[in-house]
Structures are given as C-alpha cells and as structure tokens.
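[recover] target loaded
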C-alpha cells in the first residue's frame, strides 16, 4: 500500500513537470521574437563624395575650421563641440574651447585625446594629409566644400541633419534665404558696382569667379572686375588700373585695420592713380564674408549698404550677427591660413 501511494505521487509529479515543460515551450513558440539591436554606426556621404562611417548619435565634435565652428554655434550645438582651432574666434565663446592647433597643422595627439565622434573639415582650408592621418587613427572626418551662397545654405542644412538637428538647420537655412532675398530685392533695380575684392595687398590677391565670395558680391549688387578661374589669383596692379574698379572692398575684423591699409594705399605710386583710391571709394565689411557660414548673410547686407546706401535709407543697420563688446582678436589673413586638400600651398580664405 505504501509503495502504491508513492508510485502514484511520483507519477503525478512527472505529469505536472511534463505539462509545465510543454506549456513553457508553447509560450516560447508563440511569443514575438526579440527585436534586433539598432546599429551603432551609419554610413554617410560628405560634400566631396567620400563615404564615411559615423556613430548614430554624434555627441563629441572637433572642428578644424572657423566657419564650421561658427555653424555649430549657429545651430545651437556648441555643447557638443569639444575642441577647435586657434583661429576659431567667433562667437567669442569659441575661444574658450580646447584648442588643437592650427587648421593647416593641427595636433593629432590633441584631437585623439578629446575622443571625438567626428572631426569636421573643409576642403579649401584643411589638408588631405590631416584627413588621411585621422582615418589611420580610426577617427572619422566629414568634409564640406561650398562654392556659392546657396551652397553655404545647403551645407548648413546637411550638417544639421548629420548632427541630428534637421529642424534647426531647415529654420536657419530659411532665415538666411529670406534675408538674402530681401537684400537682392532692394538692389535689383540699381546698376551693379564694379569692385576689386582685396584679399591681400602685397602681393595683390583677389578672388576668382567660382568662389563663394564672388557670388556674395553679386548678391550685394556688385561684380568683381577679376574674371579668373583660379580661386585666389595674384593680380598685376597695372591690370587693376586697366579694369578701373569703382570700389575696393576689404574684409577686416576691426575697421581701424582697414583704415590703416587704405591710408597706406593712398600713398603708394601704383595704387594712388586708381580713381577708387583717389576718391576713397572703399567698402570695409566684416571678415564674415571670408567664411562660408550663416553670417555670410550679414556680410552681404553690410556690403550692399555701403555700395547702394540709397536702397537702405529707410532701414537701420542690422546688428543680428555683430560681435558683442570685447570682440575677438583679428582673424588671421588668408595667407596665414593657407591649405587645401588638393594644393596645400594655395591661398585660401579664413574659413
């Protein structure tokens, strides 16, 4: 009797276990399969056609060009900027970021120590050697290369999308388009001013027809007298006399610097025969015109106001993008920031 009871208990326990296992298996068979983990990286194409691999969420950025630093601040993403160059001086707060050296010869050790998710570069300023060295360290770099005002707007929007702020980029792009369109409307009916944009005086360097600066001049109601396929052509002063520009245009961080330059030119034999020098027809605008960044809209307005003051008689000067008191030191000249992917010794703008 005792054994019969024991055997029955064992049998019942075995049946319970059997049905429990079957229930578990059935539950597992009918449950949804687990979702795969999202990929940690994605592939994107930069503005010079390179395919790069970047994290899904980019939180640590190093900028190797002043225009890219400005753009990050304009997008409100400055908290992600962990380092930039010695020449990143706008807005003034950018000077407080960790510096990694110059744009042409940054310290790779300093960049690597910041553990960036992404390094931002621009073709007309940074060297291919720098990009290749970053790649060898496993640090991705994204290159920009705008050649017109419209391309600057598109580049800004693309960068915002890359960094996860597409709505901000779209809003900023539309604001730039609106401001530039308003300037063009004011000067559209007025004759264009012929100008010489002076990048450097000795030797004399100007801008080529395919640069974003030449395009900015046209948006301001001007046209460059230099018709060169080179980005930064060296110009013979005798040729400038023959071309007879109505205005000389200078870009300076501080007006006093330009005043010194124009006073000097007035005393030089080759320059003083120019009507623009004799009659002191100079347009001095901020060095924002040298940088393919959102402030280009303000630079265009500055120039349009000086070349066509009658078109702006009813509106005060916009100070939307002007530097605050205690402004940064003068930006380095284009020659001091020379360097490009394709020709490292070519003169470039202070981007």
């Amino acid at each position: 009797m005792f054994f019969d009871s024991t055997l029955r208990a064992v049998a019942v326990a075995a049946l319970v276990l059997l049905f429990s296992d079957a229930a578990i298996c059935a539950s597992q068979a009918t449950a949804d399969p687990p979702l795969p983990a999202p990929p940690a990286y994605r592939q994107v194409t930069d503005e010079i056609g390179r395919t790069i691999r970047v994290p899904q969420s980019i939180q640590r950025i190093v900028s190797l060009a002043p225009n890219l630093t400005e753009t990050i601040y304009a997008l409100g993403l400055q908290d992600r900027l962990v380092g930039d160059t010695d020449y990143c001086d706008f807005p003034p707060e950018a000077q407080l970021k960790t510096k990694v050296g110059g744009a042409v010869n940054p310290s790779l050790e300093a960049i690597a120590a910041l553990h960036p998710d992404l390094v931002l570069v621009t073709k007309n300023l940074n060297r291919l050697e720098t990009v290749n060295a970053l790649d060898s360290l496993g640090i991705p770099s994204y290159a920009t290369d705008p050649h017109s005002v419209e391309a600057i707007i598109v580049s800004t929007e693309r960068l915002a999308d890359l960094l996860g702020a597409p709505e901000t980029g779209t809003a900023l792009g539309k604001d730039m388009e609106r401001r530039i369109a308003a300037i063009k409307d004011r000067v559209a009916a007025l004759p264009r001013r012929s100008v010489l944009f002076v990048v450097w005086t000795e030797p004399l360097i100007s801008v080529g027809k395919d640069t974003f600066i030449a395009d900015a001049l046209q948006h301001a109601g001007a046209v460059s007298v230099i018709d060169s396929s080179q980005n930064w052509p060296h110009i013979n002063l005798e040729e400038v006399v023959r071309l007879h520009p109505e205005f000389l245009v200078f870009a300076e961080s501080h007006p006093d610097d330009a005043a010194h330059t124009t006073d000097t030119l007035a005393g030089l034999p080759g320059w003083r025969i120019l009507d623009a020098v004799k009659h002191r027809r100079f347009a001095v605008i901020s060095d924002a015109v040298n940088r393919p960044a959102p402030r280009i809209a303000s630079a265009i307005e500055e120039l349009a106001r000086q070349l066509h003051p009658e078109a702006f008689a009813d509106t005060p000067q916009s100070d939307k993008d002007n530097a605050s008191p205690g402004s940064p030191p003068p930006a380095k000249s284009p020659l001091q920031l020379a360097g490009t992917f394709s020709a490292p010794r070519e003169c470039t703008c202070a981007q």
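[recover] notes: Residues 23 and 29 are 10 Å apart (CA to CA).
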